[in-house]
Specification:
Layout: E1 7-11, H1 26-37, E2 44-46, E3 49-56, E4 59-66, H2 74-83, E5 91-97, E6 105-108, H3 117-126, E7 132-137, H4 147-151, H5 157-180, H6 182-189
Parallel strand pairs: 1-4, 1-5, 5-7
Antiparallel strand pairs: 2-3, 3-4, 6-7
Length: about 200
Amino acid sequence: MLQKQLRLVVGLGNPGREYEKTRHNAGFMTVDHIAQTFSIPLDKRKFNTVFGKGLIEGVDAILAKPLAFMNKSGPPVQNLAGYFKILNRDMLVIHDDIDLDFGRIKIIEKGGHGGHNGVRSLMDAFGGGDFSRLRIGIGRSGTGADVTGHVLGKYSDDESKVLDQLITRCRDAAVTILCKGIKDGMNRFNNQRTVLTS
């Protein structure tokens, strides 16, 4: 019997309670929501990651969050992928993106880091960017805050009112990629203006 290929879904973020609801932790929030939906406990630790293994609509998957800070997240993920013999093409990375308006999401098959320190660290560790990404729009600061202050800041009151809807949509996008393929995910979720209602 042919064994199904194990998939790895990685959410990027910073560890620690002070970063829990910050914009930079959109990846962590999405992985937590997927784990909750599919009853996959994130209770295992290895290679400076926390992870859990389970079924997502019939697909064998590992959900993981690196416990290193964002700019050092690559080596833990690379070690975990190597341990489970997961190929780059079977990995989905979920991360925030300031170049997308808040509420937009974009799926890409591979590419550069776009200035994102977590993706840059992954590319360095894996020797390239040949892995799928789910980019979650957080927009740029409308108040003139610097990039670091903005991404490490909390969501605004208006954003917080619809954040659950956005994270649920990101979960649905990730599940679509895993179960139906990246092309289906792109067709369904890219270029759509997400209507979020408070």
